[in-house]
Design a protein that fits this description.
By secondary structure, the chain is mostly helical. 66% of the residues lie in helices and 3% in strands. It is built from 28 helices and four strands. A two-stranded antiparallel ribbon has the order 1-2. The protein is elongated, with a radius of gyration of 44 Å.
């Protein structure tokens, strides 16, 4: 790309052609772009870059020159003040030398009562003119202080005290009295600190934000994923800025064509890098995984990026580190589960040792059931598409921790749905049927249907679990009261076509397993005929199954 192409591209994005500072808010309207000039304190003034613009540089140089001249002027003034202070100190030293060293009870008044002119070699200096000069100098310095440059008010007050002591008359009009009243020296008030000029923004990664608020405004003014990705790369060391970028990406992702644009700029790779760099920032992890959980649910390209750039391995670490954080852990397991979609990606996820982390979560104590349920749900998605994943779960003694979890969460409908989903996925392997039934999975499904008779989601999930266990478990279903729960589901969900469809499918398979079952059903559950007739009339899609079951029940 040539220099002119780079310039055109930056102008198109509303950036400074020299430092890429955002100068305009660019909004796409169809095939057109509208530009709104930005104003950011210290950086941009009405769409003009204050860092690179030559006029802004001239203003800064003029300010520096004026400041230097003011400093030189104050230096000369300070030297004059030092000269007057030295004169006053010489006077004090001379007066102390003339004072007698003996006769401590003699008052200062008697000492100074003699005419000083009679002392040989001594001439009284004209102090009035000297201290008038000092006063005028201090007043001049004080005026400079009012301009905000130099503070020297202490000169006037300190020398005022000395002048009072040296020029004070003793009452007779002759001689000077040095500190006659022995009053403590008055402390000059401390000068107010001069406000420091605001430092010029350095050109670098942090030049786009003088405050968090300004950066947030800048982030949410961006309408292009490439700009957001560039900003994340520029501020990769600042977790708060990464969070703002993730939130802005998620917002844009839900707009038309947003997901396509996000995939094209490989935004998920930048987000994964942010997770790796700020592994200890829980807020950033929440923002990043909320974005990835949505993106992986709708985009195949994002799933590929997560797997290819070690997003699964990183998610395993996060899930293990934050295993007690239910909200974050559920987002992590959702991302992993979304990547198991029945393609080669499922095999890649299993190869990342995810099953062992599922077992780790189920084995941990004092963990929120929501976290364990999310891990079970992820395992169900793996088992549905991967025989290797199923074998790893069984061989890893997964059933010994899964069945107790299902039993302990029997009162939680969502947990029962997730557990029934895993039973359905594992039961697809006929070789595992005996193992599942032997571990008591069938009894747990009966318990779930009994505990949640009015919950359509639980009833539907339990019916799917029955179907998976049917080849080897049909006798247990009939003997341990499973059919009674199916009959109750027909009665309780007469107006729910989805539940009726699953219940009728289970009953139809049961009747095919043994020729004695229709007669047993007709004898023990006579009310089922009425429910079947109602379902046949209410839902034409169920009519064929209902008629088949009724015909079998009528055969003697």
């Amino acid at each position: 790309m040539t220099a002119s192409d780079v310039t055109k591209e930056r102008e198109k994005k509303g950036q400074c052609v020299k430092c890429t500072q955002q100068l305009f808010k660019v909004k796409r309207i169809g095939a057109f772009r509208s530009k709104k000039p930005l104003t950011i304190q210290g950086l941009v003034e009405n769409g003009r870059c204050m860092i690179c613009d030559s006029r802004a540089g001239d203003v800064v140089l003029a300010q520096v020159s004026t400041t230097a001249q003011a400093v030189d002027s104050h230096s000369a003034t300070a030297q004059a003040v030092d000269s007057h202070i030295a004169t006053a100190q010489a006077v004090d030293s001379h007066s102390a030398h003339d004072e007698p060293s003996s006769g401590h009870n003699t008052s200062n008044k008697s000492i100074m009562s003699n005419d000083s002119s009679s002392a040989p070699g001594y001439t009284r200096p004209d102090m009035t003119s000297s201290f008038a000069s000092v006063q005028s100098t201090s007043v001049s310095v004080s005026s400079n202080h009012s301009s905000g440059h130099l503070q020297q008010n202490y000169v006037e007050e300190s020398h005022d005290d000395e002048r009072k002591g040296l020029l004070k008359d003793d009452g007779g009009g002759e001689g000077l009295s040095l500190y006659e009243n022995d009053e403590p020296e008055v402390q000059a008030p401390e000068p107010e600190p001069e406000p420091k000029p605001e430092p010029r923004e350095r050109r670098g990664r942090s030049r786009r934000s003088s405050t968090s608020v300004q950066f947030a405004e800048y982030i949410f003014s961006l309408v292009d994923f490439q700009d957001l990705v560039d900003t994340m790369n520029d501020t990769h060391a600042q977790a708060k800025m990464q969070i703002l970028c993730c939130d802005a990406m998620l917002r844009l992702m839900k707009t038309p064509d947003g997901m396509r644009d996000f995939s094209e700029v490989r935004g998920s790779v930048t987000v994964i890098d942010a997770i790796d760099e700020h592994f200890k920032s829980r807020d950033l992890l929440m923002a990043a995984y909320e974005l990835l959980s949505y993106a992986t649910s709708v985009s195949i390209a994002v799933k590929n990026h997560v797997i290819e750039f070690d997003g699964i391995v990183l998610s395993n670490r996060v899930g293990q580190e934050y295993v007690t954080d239910s909200e974050l852990s559920q987002l992590v397991w959702k991302v992993i589960s979304n990547c198991c979609d029945g393609t080669n990606r499922t095999k890649q996820v299993v190869d990342k040792n995810v099953v062992s982390y599922v077992l780790h979560v189920l084995c941990c104590e004092d963990i929120c059931t929501g976290t364990q349920g999310a891990a079970v749900d992820c395992m169900a998605n793996i088992a549905k598409h991967s025989s290797k994943g199923r074998i790893q779960f069984i061989q890893g003694e997964g059933m010994s921790v899964f069945v107790p979890f299902m039993f302990m969460t029997e009162s939680i409908g969502l947990a029962q749905v997730q557990c029934c989903g895993l039973i359905s996925a594992l039961g697809k392997d006929d070789k595992l049927n005996d193992s599942l039934i032997g571990e008591g999975c069938l009894l747990q499904v009966n318990g779930a249907m009994s505990a949640h008779p009015k919950d359509p989601d639980v009833q539907e999930a339990c019916c799917k679990a029955f179907v998976a266990l049917m080849p080897m478990g049909h006798q247990e279903i009939m003997e341990f009261g499973g059919f009674g729960f199916l009959a109750a589901a027909l009665e309780n969900h007469q107006n729910n076509g989805s539940v009726l469809k699953e219940v009728l499918y289970v009953i139809g398979k049961l009747i095919r397993c043994d020729s004695l079952y229709p007669q047993m059903i007709s004898t023990n559950f006579p009310e089922i005929r009425q429910h079947l007739q109602h379902a046949s009339m209410s839902y034409p899609a169920c009519k064929e199954k209902c008629d088949f079951i009724l015909d079998r029940m009528s055969v003697r």
